[in-house]
Amino acid sequence: MLLTGIFFFFTPRLPAQQPPSPSSAAALNHSLVPVYLVFPFENAGAPPRLDWIGEGLEELTIQRLSHAGLQVYSHSGRVNEMDRYGLPDSAKLSRASMLHVAQEMDADYAVFGSFASDGKTLTVNARLMRINPAALLPAVTEHGPLDSLMELHNRITWHLLTATDHSYPLSLVEFSKLQRSLSLAAFEQYIRGLLASDDDVRLRDLKEAAKLEPEWPDPAFAIGQIYFARNDCNSALPWFGRVPATNARSVEAIFSIGVCRLRLGQAEQAEQVFSSLQEGLQHSLVAGAELPEILNNLGLARAQQGNLAAAQTAVGRARDLDPDEDDYPFNLGLLALGQTELSIAATHFREAVRREPDNPEDLAFLIYSLQKAGKNAEADLERGNAVAALGDKTLPAIKVDAKGDNLLKYQRVTKELDPTTLPLELENPSLHPSVTTAGSSIKVTPAAHLRLGRQQLIAGHLDIAEQEFRAVIVADPKNTSAHRELADIYRRQGKLDDAVKELQLCLAVRDSAIERTMLARIYLEQKKPDLARAEVEKAVKLAPNYAGAKELLQHLGTNSPTGGAK
């Protein structure tokens, strides 16, 4: 299946009296496989030139757990979560902080450790922390020549696994056979490439890694990302094309290929890419699952070929799935404008403005569509609102030709899959048969219920997701993740008072910048700017680097306590 290796979907749990189908049993069994979160290893006594080993051990641990058929968050998954809490990736975390991050990511185990070297020999100390109930397992230590790092790490990972599961079925030899054989030189170049701050240096090191290990797709994907960020699609495409469908990063690579096709004006090929992604998603373990990022780009590819009805359907579904993103109603406005459906266009642009009040382009197109519809009084009112919202910023000039052909340049292509709404960070290989455990008698843990609920939420199955989150709360009434997810469901359903109550329950357990920012946004929807400002100020104080809180505070700073302009 196209999506194998990166998406992590589940079917609904069936009633107890109904025997599970093979697919649903596999999904539930899959959800019960422990999820691991890996942190960089600390340099506890090695020359600075060997600092790369810390991140290297993190990456090796992720790869080897994944290749053994286990579920493990990627490096980017961990970094994204830490960013939500205003924690830089380079921050040295206490064990308590690691536990907190792991809890928020619904991990079952966290891996961390340290290393030391005199330049010739290497000592690695690894620790495994169980998350619920919290416990620190005995350290695993290995020592050997520096050039034996790959074999040494194999032993460490196997010992960690056997420490969590005394009946682990694979011997060290069998476990080692599951791993990709990599040269230390290629691996070092790859890690140095990832760590480099200069793009040219990154490309040099990553290309050297790809040269040393031509069949290893990880350097190819990283190189593709660099060219993609430069908008150099002609260079990016061949590298993304070297990522096989079985690789954990394949969906990201394929999605980027589709974006490149759109950027290059190859709409038919882009449609094929996004259609294949969408079909693969719909055949996953969650029936009917859809991703707004894929649907939006699929719609734009169809629009560029003149298939406007199908385009509107796809982008409209993206808008419905993501209640916060303004790009989707904006694109619907463009489609309506291109068909001279001016009142409908204004409705879509007004929705975009509601979602993102500070976006000058959203406001400009709303005013433009109202003027073209002959609603000059409404246009003047919106222009006044725009001045209040934007302050010194000016509205961009909108120039649409007679046939609307130049509207294409305004289309908003989604450039990447959003890891905050989909756990793309979870590497999810096909499970190794000897690692899985059959049977329905295994206890479903709160973390497994959370993962099931989040996948159902992504699929748009709000009722089923709510059942899963309530199952978590029955087992653990103070589980802040479950309460936060329930708040999200209630907000989507327009039950704002219920959403506020769930977030207040979260904050009664533990103060959090994320929950306070969510609460502030809901207060804004309830027209309570004073309460919103108080919450977001507390959020920024808790996590000064949290972008979501800083952006919201900046927005509130342009408005008076009563919601009008200063």
Outline of this structure?
The chain is α/β, with parallel strands linked by helices. The protein is 56% helix and 7% strand.
Give the key terms.
single chain, 566 residues, alpha/beta, Rossmann fold, Serine Threonine Protein Phosphatase 5, Tetratricopeptide repeat, 8-stranded mixed beta sheet, 25 helices, 8 strands, 7% strand, globular, disordered N terminus, disordered C terminus
Structure explained in plain terms:
With 566 residues, this protein is of the alpha/beta class. Among the domains are: 33-181, Rossmann fold, CATH 3.40.50; 324-416, Serine Threonine Protein Phosphatase 5, Tetratricopeptide repeat, CATH 1.25.40.10; 448-557, Tetratricopeptide repeat domain (Serine Threonine Protein Phosphatase 5, Tetratricopeptide repeat, Alpha Horseshoe), CATH 1.25.40. The chain contains 25 helices and 8 strands. Strands 1, 2, 3, 4, 5, 6, 7 and 8 form an 8-stranded mixed β-sheet that branches. Helix 8 (199-212) runs antiparallel to helix 9 (217-229), helix 19 runs antiparallel to helix 20 (462-475) and helix 24 (529-542) runs antiparallel to helix 25. It is globular and about 80 Å long. The termini are far apart. The model is unreliable at 1-31, 419-442 and 560-566 (pLDDT under 50).
